[in-house]
């Protein structure tokens, strides 16, 4: 019986989808026949206008029955297309993979090994960002293994804001998306509609320490960072995790400590185009009640630009020394 569906939402990005599917094909070919029978591939084409259908057909022929696809009659929007990938899976687990991300060598084998060894509710896989050739950015020595968590809070402290990175997460299927649809609509974070309930109610989680996914950087664009990872993320975590506020807080803390400082520094040093005033006002509105905001974010806005990088270096040291307290 199939165990895992690799589900890919796509729209008008055939050049990226081609590489994504090529790597899945190569990973499937590296498995034994019994292991190949555990994996299905599913592509949800959101009415693409480019040659996406031709790319999909080519890999369908190679996959010989292990490859399903749906082509929406009209563009249903990115969020619904992503949710469709989760809800259409008929296997115990689903891995919703960005069409511009790739599974690196032996990555699929590592995922199957974990899913076979222990039933988990959410599996996180380590990853790295690339802009050119994904293989040139890989820096991995030895086998780092798997960390297992029986506590959702400990898992959330480890992953925190990276729970929003959909390509790094393999999730148990069966969550009723209707229960969370209202709070995630318009957030650009539809995956939290199934990940947070699994985090809230689950008992077993795992983290593959070795890199498994290479994520295409500088490619999505258009994200309004404060709206998505500030207002929306806080609203969604507070809502779905209202009975587990400590988990919601761990995710929010990680967003303050690990995510936003880099973007502020990039802007202040001239390598980013985000609006300084809008970011400053928005982050204050969302996070001012959290003391971490006053240490990790506010100073980066008000210190002289010449000092910002040095202050951020001190924050890096603080993250290493006081990780358990900060998140």
Quick overview:
It is built from 15 helices and nine strands. With about 325 residues, the chain is of the alpha/beta class. It has two domains: about 5-220, Alpha-Beta Complex (Spore Coat Polysaccharide Biosynthesis Protein SpsA, Chain A), CATH 3.90.550; about 230-325, no CATH class.
Verbal overview:
By secondary structure, the chain is α/β, with parallel strands linked by helices. It has 15 helices and nine strands. The chain has helices spanning 14-29, 33-36, 52-63, 78-87, 107-117, 152-159, 181-184, 192-201, 225-240, 245-268, 276-287, 291-296, 298-302, 305-321, 323-326; strands spanning 4-10, 39-45, 67-71, 93-96, 102-103, 122-130, 146-149, 169-172, 205-216. Strands 1, 2, 3, 4, 5, 6, 7, 8 and 9 form a nine-stranded mixed beta sheet that branches. Helix 3 links the parallel strand 2 and strand 3 (67-71). Helix 1 runs parallel beside helix 3. The two termini are 39 Å apart. The relative contact order is 0.11. The model has no long low-confidence stretch (mean pLDDT 91).
Secondary structure: elements and pairs:
Layout: E1 4-10, H1 14-29, H2 33-36, E2 39-45, H3 52-63, E3 67-71, H4 78-87, E4 93-96, E5 102-103, H5 107-117, E6 122-130, E7 146-149, H6 152-159, E8 169-172, H7 181-184, H8 192-201, E9 205-216, H9 225-240, H10 245-268, H11 276-287, H12 291-296, H13 298-302, H14 305-321, H15 323-326
Features:
49% helix; alpha/beta; Spore Coat Polysaccharide Biosynthesis Protein SpsA, Chain A; 327 residues; 2 domains; 17% strand; 15 helices; nine-stranded mixed sheet
């Amino acid at each position: 019986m199939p165990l895992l569906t690799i589900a890919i939402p796509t729209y008008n990005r055939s050049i990226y989808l081609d590489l994504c599917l090529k790597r899945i094909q190569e990973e499937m070919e590296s498995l034994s026949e019994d292991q190949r029978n555990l994996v299905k591939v599913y592509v949800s084409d959101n009415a693409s206008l480019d040659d996406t259908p031709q790319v999909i057909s080519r890999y369908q022929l190679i996959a010989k029955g292990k490859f399903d696809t749906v082509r929406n009659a009209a563009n249903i929007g990115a969020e619904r297309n992503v949710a469709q990938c989760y809800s259409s899976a008929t296997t115990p687990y689903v891995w919703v993979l960005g069409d511009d991300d790739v599974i690196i060598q032996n990555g699929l084998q590592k995922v199957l090994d974990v899913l076979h060894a222990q039933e988990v509710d959410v599996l996180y896989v380590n990853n790295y960002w690339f802009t050119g050739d994904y293989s040139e950015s890989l820096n991995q020595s030895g086998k780092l293994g798997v960390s297992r968590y029986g506590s959702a809070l400990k898992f959330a402290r480890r992953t925190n804001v990276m729970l929003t990175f959909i390509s790094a997460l393999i999730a148990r299927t069966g969550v009723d998306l209707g229960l969370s649809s209202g709070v995630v609509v318009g957030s650009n974070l539809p995956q939290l509609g199934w990940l947070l309930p699994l985090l809230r109610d689950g008992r077993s989680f795992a983290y593959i320490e070795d890199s498994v996914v290479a994520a295409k950087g500088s490619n999505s664009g258009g994200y309004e960072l404060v709206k998505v990872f500030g207002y929306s993320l806080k609203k969604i975590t507070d809502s779905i995790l209202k009975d587990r506020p400590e988990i919601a807080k761990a995710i929010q803390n990680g967003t303050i400590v690990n995510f936003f400082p880099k973007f502020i520094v990039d802007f202040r040093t001239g390598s980013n185009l985000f609006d300084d005033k809008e970011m400053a006002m928005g982050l204050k509105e969302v996070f001012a009640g959290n003391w971490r905001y006053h240490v990790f974010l506010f100073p980066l806005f008000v210190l002289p630009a010449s000092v910002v990088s040095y202050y951020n270096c001190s924050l890096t040291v603080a993250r290493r020394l006081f990780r358990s307290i900060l998140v």
